[in-house]
Amino acid sequence: MCGILGSIGFTEKEFFKRALDNLAHRGPDAEGLWHHENVMLGHRRLSIIDLSESANQPFEFLNYVAVFNGEIYNYLELKKELVSFGYQFTTDSDTEVLIAAYDKWKDKFVKRLNGMWAVAIWNKTLNSLFLSRDRIGKKPLFYLHQKENFFFASEMKGLYPFIDHLEFNMPVIQDAIKNNFGYEVKNESLIKNIIRFPAGCNGYLVNNKLSIDKYWHPLDELIEVPNKYEAQVEMFRDLFLNACKIRMRSDVPIGTALSGGLDSSSVICSLNHLAQTHDDIKTKDWQHAFIACFPGTSIDETGYAKKVTNALDIGSNFIVIDPELELEKLFHQTYMFEEIYYAPTIPFVQLYRKMRQGGIKVSIDGHGADELFAGYPFDMELALIDAFPNPTKFKEIASIIQDAYSRKNPELYKKFKYSLVNNFKFLSPIAKNTPIYRKIAPLDYLNTQLFKSTYSNILPTLLRNYDRYSMMNGIEIRMPFLDYRILQFAFSIPYDSKIRKGFGKAIIRDAMRGIVPEEIVNRKSKIGFNSPLHTWLQGRMKKWIVDQINSKSFAESNLIDAKKVKKDLEQLLAKKELSYTEAELTFAKIIPYIWETGMKSFAKGKNQLPL
Description:
This protein is of the alpha+beta class and about 600 residues long. The two termini are about 30 Å apart. Helix content is about 40%, strand content about 15%.
């Protein structure tokens, strides 16, 4: 896991080094630069596999030089296969295996990889550049094409120095403000001329011309699964345990961000199960649970997390999240985060910072389960169409959704209940022929909705967010639920393998029985890793917000209607109590200003003062 930077055509070496320093947080363990004629490749390393200097990058092997951000979990199996073809290796790194696989199978090698990556490989013989990003976009990659110069980087800030005059991309920014989840899969970024390299694609730069080909077509990757639910459960359990096992390949200690919910508990309990039942686990040092705590608030999950760590008899690190520690850093954190998102970075950054301070560089976390296996009630609503006209299944699914809404959001519960009672026709794809109710063949309605959540909006945004939260602190996140084999499996099973017997994510629950404590398996309350903004805005953050909305910089913001936003915020802050939803809306109104201020303070182009 690292930060990569490259340029084709640009030759100012010392300037390039300074740009590489903008990515130092992604790789604090080592840095390297390869320069030949008009090609420069830079790397900031987070050392995880083969900690020796011989594994540092840029990595030269055969006729190639590569810079690579990510991990290839099946590198040992690939290495064995490549040795049989006559390849010889001098390190134990996955980078060397990656280059050899490219040499052997050319651009088709990505289909053999199980991992996450953003990689650039320079062919010294052909003077051409190969770029690739993993199937679902766990690892970021941006590029900038300026006439005869081509640049790429892990984060936009690596490219800022090469731009003469940084400009906000206002249409994208306005779209992002309206819909935080709507722009991550688009090519354009928040800064003019910086382009997001798409997930699941390969790129080829030849004679200063870039071509991009998509290699991952998820609907073409569906697999045959057993008809019987019980056999599907067994299949999922085997896939998930193997996904966890290969992600335990590490030469450094491993941690887990544990909430006490089903997903993160499934991860750490599976690590425990594997450590007890398999002798070939690469690392024995995995027993590090880190729990974000919000004492006295409705989103504190400490009690559930303790049940998990007590059951496993492992140590735990309970981190009380304190917003006041971060308020003066919030503008810089938002600049480091780079994107516009409604939630503050505070709890996530504090958690992964504590993890790094505790000697952890790798966190195996539970991201992706909700999007793949129906963890959100708003996704589950589409399963009602699949269930109709089966009255038993329909009633069961409606009950699950109503229960989830009543726990989380009373207003959504009222709205949903009203629709069920008074407007049942809204569920009928015949009566309401709108795009949201159209299936994507061969998926059913629920899987169509989950497909959109996975590939178009929610998950791409969350993957981006967690990459930034963790890499600000030099932490790599591994996600077994997003193993490509599980992606294939998830969209090959029907809706009623995901929602059944009173639960969403039913197949995960049934697969984890005997591995995860039963109380967690059967837990219905879903909180998620969020900020208790409704509490903070009434107390520890209130003065800071008031100071901001009365500041000169707020009044001069170009991204918001300062007078209107100030009035709205004053009205909300004057309330004796704020609901969770009101608090989120409150903070979302000020986020564009925080992002703008952070950019103006810290982002610099080549020949200018800050924006």
